[in-house]
Amino acid sequence: MHKPLYSSNVAHYMEGEAMRAVFESWFVQYKVDAIFSGHVHAYERSYRYSNIDYNITGGRRYPVPDPSAPIYVTIGDGGNLEGLASSYLDPQPEYSAFREASYGHATLEIKNRTHAIYNWYRNDDGKRVAADSLVLLNQYWGNNNGKQSASY
Predict the structure, then answer these.
(1) Domain boundaries, the chain
(2) Quick check: helix, strand or coil at residue 48?
(3) DSSP per residue over 3-66, as a string?
(4) Residue 21: in which H helix or E strand, if any?
(5) Model confidence pLDDT, tens digit, residues 80-131
(6) Which residue intervals define the domain Purple acid phosphatase C-terminal in the entry (predicted)?
């Protein structure tokens, strides 16, 4: 996706809300593991949160932990003419696991059908150590009791 569905960066804040309202229930239903987006010139990763029960007239108005939800990664920090988007909401929202306004890049190493390793590196510190890392576990594969087609 281009615009992030979850971002606590002040630049372009909530611009993806219309898309979130349409697509998020499908992401949760079909156990999508990760959504990558750009648009915001900074880095941020979420926990598994969803806001599929959002009700502006008196119900839930904030995202809540949801083990079936994807992890949302905003990685628009590869470089640009405008510079970094360095302002974030304060305090950091509960859904936001890691955020940083610096140039960087990421790697995603698919290990097998169930595991992938994700690493984000900041480019401006000269270190080859990941600043943010996680192991993604395939929710669909593990919860389908062996009913996958041979094409997987």
Answers:
(1) 17-142
(2) coil
(3) S-SS--BSTTTTTTHHHHHHHHHHHHHTT--EEEE-SSSSEEEE-SEE-TTB-TTTSB-S-EE-
(4) helix 17-29
(5) 878 898 899 999 999 999 999 999 999 999 999 999 999 999 987 778 899 9
(6) 69-127
Architecture of domain 17-142: 4-Layer Sandwich (3.60)
In whole angstroms, give the CA distance from residue 38 to residue 55.
27
Q: What is the pTM of this model?
A: 0.85
Residues 6+ positions from 129 with CB-CB distance below 8 Å: 121
Return the closest-CA partner of residue 52 out of 26, 32, 16. 26
Active site (catalytic) residues: 12
Token pair, residue 50, equals: 């969803």
